[in-house]
Amino acid sequence: MLDVNRLAVLVRIAHHGSITAAATSLSITPAAVSQQLAKLEREVGCPLVDRHPRGVRLTAVGEALAAHAETIVGQVRAAEQHVQVLLGQQPTQLTVGTFASAGQTLVPPALARFRREYPDVALALRDLEPPDGYGLVTSRELDLLITHSYPGGTMPDAQGLRRFLLLTDPLRLALPADHPLADRQRIALKTLADYEWISGGPGIPNRVCLEHLAQQAKVNVHVAYETADYQVTLALVAAGLGVALVPSSLLDGLGDRRIAVRTLTGSPVARGIHLAHHRQPNPLALAMIGFLTRSGNR
């Protein structure tokens, strides 16, 4: 039978992408991680990682085993938590994963409310860009994962977790205040075909969304400035360098007069903000789910 502790090490390697980072997360030395990995490879009978200058990459066997290991490690941790509850010991920590823009708007009020209600609980937040994070919930390194979906994209399989829509976040058109089309409240995408756009790089969800909308409108859009950071996007718009689609949650209370916020014509366009968690979350996770839900309804 494979050793559970070694499987836990493999999961950390898979999540962090390097021996050193996995060792740091486990509070052990890289040499100890390498030893555990070597023993697991001997148990399995083949290499589980390929080493490269920037870290390690799991082999096909390593990826398959890591997927099973996430579930196994998660179940062991769930069993430990259940035993603690039966012995009268309540959970003492909660870890939430979120992406950057939700971390700016949705998350802070919920964390603040949780801190007031549960001052003795160790609360942690991890920055994760979708689609990352599902495996961390499966292995119970995360209690909750806040993730998103954009039009034109597909969400990964929930991997046996419960996932629900927390908030619909409309996408608005941000353009320089002196833009020739800024006097219109509603603007057709086809009228923006000759202007430079600001968006994420190829494959980034907001770029996939923009290309999807352009395909529907039968126009080509030119992305001149690539950034996945919406604050950088807004700074570039304010500087007069291009136009962009930006979530409404990041535009509420925007006081920059250099930016005009308008609506695209046609069907409403929005990203979904979702929450993923175990099917039987512990009491602390349930409390945070409630706080996040209220924050999303504000």
From TrEMBL:
CDD domains recorded: PBP2_LTTR_like_6
SUPFAM superfamilies linked to this entry: Periplasmic binding protein-like II, Winged helix' DNA-binding domain
Keywords, alphabetical: DNA-binding, Transcription, Transcription regulation
Domain HTH lysR-type: 2-59
Pfam families assigned: HTH_1, LysR_substrate
Gene Ontology cellular component annotations, sorted alphabetically: protein-DNA complex
GO MF terms, alphabetically ordered: DNA binding; DNA-binding transcription factor activity
Domain of life, source organism: Bacteria
Annotated family: Belongs to the LysR transcriptional regulatory family.
Protein name, UniProt field: LysR family transcriptional regulator
Organism: Kibdelosporangium phytohabitans
